[in-house]
Amino acid sequence: MPINIPQQLPAREILEKENIFVMDVDRARRQDIRPLNILILNLMPEKEKTEAQLLRLLGNTPLQVNVSFLYTATYESRNVSKSHLQQFYTTFEEVKGRRIDGMIITGAPIELMEFEEVSYWEELTDIMDWAKTNVTSLLHICWGAQAALYHYFGIGKFELPKKCSGVFSHTVNEPTVKLMRGFDDLFYAPHSRYTDVEIEKIKGHNDLQLLAYSEEAGAFIIMSKDERHIMITGHLEYEAHTLSEEYARDLAKGLDIDMPKNYFPDNNPTKKPINKWRSHAHLLFSNWLNYYVYQETPYEWD
User: Fold this and answer.
1) What pTM value is reported for the model?
2) 163 labeled binding residue
3) What's the structural domain count of the chain?
4) Residue ranges of the chain whose pLDDT lies below 70
5) Residue 107 and residue 236: Cα distance in Å, rounded?
6) Residue of 51, 111, 237, 246 marked catalytic
7) What is the DSSP letter of 261?
8) Strands 100-105 and 89-90, bridge-based pairing
């Protein structure tokens, strides 16, 4: 949350130069506070795991957040019960008349397919087009980030020689951007995907800015210059054991898969992985909710 200080306090200028978010008394008096409405389009097959991962991060701020879950009507998930979807989820048809403060579009294990080949691609593009005027800020994760880069900005993906899986070091490229406030110059984050986007195309795009990247895993945090779209190519929301479970699943399928890099202690898959990214995951979601949802969304939508 911002700190509230008098407009003329000398420390204000010092703090602003250090990129500390301050709010003057007059602005604070004009603010009304209401719960934030967050919509999550959950495209992951194991929906309940993803729900817990995201809600853990959304719930660790002083802000009151109302969360709704959305699923695609044009594709029926085989890994979750119908009763779970009926009880806790809604469809786009049921929410498209609403205004939403923030929206998360998750990843999906379909990155080897062309976008247009995805059964719910048309529905997804309808949702993304609707979000342009009905959602204050959008957070896109992994395949959801690639879909946003393709649909909104015309940047496609390419297949990697081998799956990018592991925990990689990342460099903050734009430390003064609000989303990166509090981030260490170097930080860790998990990745798990078969495709990537060209980092030079992101750097050269007039409407995008690269906020963080990895020498090994490529572009990581990308934001549109109007600050309405945030694309995360990895999985800061993952728990410590998530990559281990994915690795075991891939081995059980007989896939020719490498062990996740920089993940198991001593590269020994029998040892318990250590979570080295939890604090930055909480920081990212806290910054998003505060600076791009709470501070930007209108108290009453017109």
Assistant:
1) 0.89
2) yes
3) 1
4) 1-12, 14-16, 18-33, 299, 301-302
5) 12
6) 237
7) B
8) unpaired
